[in-house]
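Take the subject:
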Amino acid sequence: MGERVEGCDLHDRHMYRRKLHDCLEGLGRLLDQKRFDRPRNLMGLEIELNLAGPDGLPRMMNAQVLERIASRDFQTELGMFNLEVNIVPHRLAGRVLDQLAEELRTGLGYAHRKAAELGAGIVMIGILPTLAQHDLVSANFSESDRYTLLNDQIVAARGEDFALDIAGVEQLSCTATSIAPEAACTSVQLHLQVTPARFADVWNAAQAAAAVQIAVGANSPFLFGRELWRESRPPLFQQATDTRPPELQAQGVRPRTWFGERWVTSPYELFEENLRYFPALLPICDEEEPLRVIDAGGVPKLYELALHNGTVYRWNRPVYGVVDGVPHLRVENRVLPAGPTVTDVIANAAFYYGLVRALADESRPVWHRLPFAAAAENFDLACRHGIDAELRWPRPGRGGGVTTVPAVKLVLDELLPLAAAGLDAWNVEPADRDLYLGVIEERCRRGVNGASWQTECYYRAVEGGLEREAALAAVTRWYCELAREGGPVHTWPIGPP
C-alpha cells in the first residue's frame, strides 16, 4: 500500500501542494549538495501474505492473528485476510541469501502456527484462487483509518464505480464500489539502497528486468473464479486503484499504477513526474518546513513527498528515507507476486539483485539499445503469458537491433550468466549463488512456475469431475500443503491427488 499514514487530519490542498513543491525543491538541494549516505550494499525485503483456512477459503481475521503473533515484523495490509512481514535490511554479501531464507522460514513458520490456533494458515501466493467478489468489499478492510481514508479519497477522485475488465484465457467483467479488490494482490517488495549517481542506472536496469522477473515468477492466474493472465496482479491493481473516469482515460491521463514511459537520468525526474502527473490523494501535512531545515544544515524528512510518492504505484518505485539523520535513496521493486515457497522467493530475489547489478554495470546499457516502449510491452506480455512469453530484447554482440526471443531462452542463454556475475560483484558466496539461481534455471528448463502449476492442477481437478469452485479450493489446499513442505514449485507433483 505504500508509505504508512499516521493520522488522518486533512489539510487545505493548496497548503499541501505548496509543501509538496517545497519538498521537491528540498530533494533537489540535497542532491546538489551531495548529502546522501554512502552505498552500504543494503537490501530489504517485504512480503504480503494471505490468511486461508483448511478449506482453502480466505479468513478475515488479521487483527486476531496479529495479536497472537505479537511481533512488529508483522503488520496489517489492506484486507482483513492480508498480513505483511518485513525483514530488517541486510548487507548484500556472503551467505545473505541463505540467511534470509532461514529468517523467513522461522518467522513464517511461527506466524503459521499462531494463525493455526485460530483455524487459519499463512499462504504466500499472488492472488488467492478462492477469493470471491463478495470477499473484496470495504466491510473487509483492515481496522485502520489510513485504509478507509485512502479508499475515500480514491473513490472521490474517480467519482464512479471501479470497472474491472480483464480479458485473458477467460473474461472477467464486473464493478466494485471501493478499492477493496486491490487487496487480492499480494506481492514481494525488494529494496536496494543506491547513491544518487547510481540511481538512474539501477532503476533503468530494474525496468528492463521487470518482464523476465514476471515471466519466471508469475503466480497469479485466477481471480473471482476466472482464469485470466498468468500474472493477473498488474491489470487488477491498475483498475482497482484507477482514479480516472473513462473520459480521462480516453484523454490519455496516466493511471496511478504505472510502468512509466521513459528511461531516466536522475532520481529527481521520477519524483517530479509524480507531482506533475498525479494529484494528491492524502493532503496530510507535517509541521516540518523542509527548506528551513536544509538552510539550517539539517536533513528534512520530506514527509509530504514521501506520502504522495506512496500513492503512485510504480512497479519500480523511487524511495527517499532518512536513517540516523542521513538521507538515502532506494529502488523499491514491486514486480513479483508472493510465493510459492521461501526458496522460490529467495531465488527470485537472487535473480533480481544479480541481474540488476550486472545490467547497471554494463558498458553498453540495455536501455541504450532497447526502446522503453518495448520494455513496457515486454512487461505486458510477460504478465499475460508468464513463462511462455516471448520478449523483445537487444541482439547479442555489436550488430545492434532488437529481436524477439522466448523468455526462457533469454534467461538461460543470457540473463542467468549475467545474474551470476552480478551476485559475484556483490560478493555473494558461490554456494548461495548457485543454489538459488539454479532454481530459476530449473523453472526455465521445465517450463514451470507458480502460475503454470496452478493452472495445470486446476484442469486436472476439473477433468477429475470437480466443479469450478471446488476445483479452485482443491488446488489451493494442495498448494498450501506443498508450500509448507518447502520444495521449490518446479519440483511439485501435479495434483490435487
Q: What stands out?
A: Residues 1-8 have pLDDT under 50 and may be disordered. Residues 233 and 277 are 23 Å apart (CA to CA). Residues 196-217 form the longest helix (22 residues). The two ends are 37 Å apart (CA to CA).
